[in-house]
Amino acid sequence: MASTGKFGSWWSILMAATAALLLALAFQMALWGRSLLPRGTTWILPIVLSVGVGFGIVLIYRWSLGRSIHKLSQQFQSMIDSREAGLVMLPEGDELAEIARPINAFLSTVVAESNRLAETNRELSLEVRLAAAEKEQVETIILSISDAVLVTNRFDELVLANHAAEALFEFGMDGAKRKPIDEIAGDPTLVRLIREMRNKAGTTSGRRMVEHLIERDGESRVFNVTLSAIREGSQDPLGVVVVLHDVTREREIAQMKTDFVSSVSHELKTPLTAIKAYTEMLMDGEAHDPQTRDEFYQIISSETDRLYRLIENILNISRIESGVVKVVREPLSLTRVVKQAMDVAGPQASQKGIVLESRLAPMYCQVEGDHDMIYQAVLNLLSNAIKYTPEGGSVRAAVEVDERRQVVGFEVVDTGQGIPVKALPHIFDRFYRVKENNGMAKGTGLGLTLVKHIVETVHDGRLSVESHEGEGSEFRFELPILRG
Amino acid sequence: MAHTILVVDDEAHIRRVVSMKLERAGYEVITAGDGEEALDVCRQSPPDLIITDYQMPVMTGLEFCQGRRQCAGAEHIPAIMLTARGFDVSTEELEDAGVVSVMDKPFSPREIVMVVEDILAGCKAGEGVGVAGEVEGSREAM
């Protein structure tokens, strides 16, 4: 009740009291008029009576108004508590029913608006969740790309980089965010390209591809760099995306293939040249005596064999690589195979004054394998050792049995020029030839590839190499021992 | 006096057949198994003509031809290059090295004698190096 204005309530009481007083006065006059009341009798009673009645009326009115207001206030309070707008309800004929109508009209627009906002809110939060998920997805994709990716903003500061970029430019993304790109990449050309792309993006296609060489740890790597401007509409670029694709290996392989074709071409044409030349000599009657004629025939025959062997080598690698090779497995003695190969390689060694030593386990140690292939592998390793050992050096071949590990090992150790450390991981690659040793001997870069295929792919063995530049190399393979 | 020809090839069979054919044709022949040996020959007794293989151990035929440009008396000897192709060598490089003719493998000994006669006839006529052999090999020919 106290919620009604104090001034208003006292004003109404005063009004009611005045009305009651006037009423009482009128009543008094009337009574006097009719002489019902003798003049001079007291006025007090009617006045008190009238004032009492007036107060009574006012109090009843105030009570009923207060009750309506309380109802209204309660309904508002429950709306506030439930945080939900509704309609106010007052009984028919209530004093405040008049006010309730516009309030209800207003409240229903509030309810409608609030419902609309709630719906919009739901949609927006869904969109935000989707956008966040999408952002995370895109970032995961960028992070896991094997190409290095850098994203810069309009101030040429780094905003995103993936793991490959961190590894390439040797930094951690944690402390690098919003750092100037030239502090991160430290590659003047790349920084210049990024700046150019950001400056010129409005006038160019917004995408540029360049080939770029990056030096790392004394090793130069070739990258295909793609720069793309990030733009919104036709505005100035917001930043640049840089993708660096390492093409070093592809280039090396392409170069290896070219070199291989050159080598094979030379290797095939050399015996062919001898065959053609000696045949022509015979046809022209240049071989005057039977002995020379025989010699020429012999040369033609042996060069034909050489050509055949070379073609076989190339074919064997292709066959093993494509898995169509026919393998004849039989129990055999590795020692015997090595002896056969040494007989063939012997003359090549003695021609260069190289001592060919051997330490071979007894004949019985056996493995299971394809005789011709294992013979080929042993011969390739032996003849490589002889080829790359300078005159007067030595080549030692050994066969030993390791009962504990159940393997038979063959090793060939030379006192040759050795293999540079950086070449070692590639030594068994197809077409690969150690550049530094190119002058020492000719080859197609296929010999060791073939050995690796024969030992590991066909016979489940293991081939390894150790080498010290200037001191020599040691090639070793192991095959599982034959049981039973 | 017979012309002297230096034949450089790491393949003994090729050296032999080329020198035999040239000797039959009346030339004097010196042989070398690699570029190093051939340079020694150039320093000691420069020949009138060089026939060299391209792909050889130690140094290529081109490197040898470039190297002998430093040997007194051997700087201007015309050279014939024998190749199996597949090498990226430019005509300019060949000319600079004094290579006047490029012959593809497999070659014919008869043809070699003809080319040699042409080149030496050109030299004798005072027309200088490269008459018989404008460089036949271009980038793709090598």
Short description:
By secondary structure, chain A is of the alpha+beta class. Chain A has helices at residues 6-33, 44-82, 97-144, 163-169, 173-176, 181-185, 188-200, 248-283, 290-322, 334-351, 371-387, 447-458; strands spanning 148-153, 158-161, 207-216, 219-230, 239-246, 330-333, 355-360, 366-369, 394-402, 407-414, 462-468, 472-480.
Question: Can you offer a commentary on this structure?
Answer:
The complex is a heterodimer of chains A (484) and B (142). Helices cover 54% and strands 18% of the residues of chain A. Chain A is built from twelve helices and twelve strands. Chain A has helices at residues 6-33, 44-82, 97-144, 163-169, 173-176, 181-185, 188-200, 248-283, 290-322, 334-351, 371-387, 447-458; strands spanning 148-153, 158-161, 207-216, 219-230, 239-246, 330-333, 355-360, 366-369, 394-402, 407-414, 462-468, 472-480. In chain A, the strands form three sheets. In chain A, strands 2-1-5-4-3 form a five-stranded antiparallel sheet. Chain A has a five-stranded mixed sheet with strand order 7-9-10-12-11, with helices on one face. A two-stranded antiparallel sheet of chain A has the order 6-8. In chain A, a hairpin with a 4-residue loop joins strand 1 and strand 2. The N and C termini of chain A lie far apart (112 Å). The model of chain A is unreliable at 1-7 (pLDDT under 50). Chain B is of the alpha/beta class and 142 residues long. Chain B is 37% helix and 18% strand. Chain B has helices at residues 12-24, 35-44, 61-67, 91-96, 109-124; strands at 4-8, 28-32, 49-53, 79-83, 99-104. The A-B interface holds A 258, 261-262, 265-266, 268-270, 272-278, 280-281, 284, 286, 299, 303, 438-442 and B 10-11, 13-14, 17-18, 20-21, 24, 55, 57-59, 84-87, 105-110.
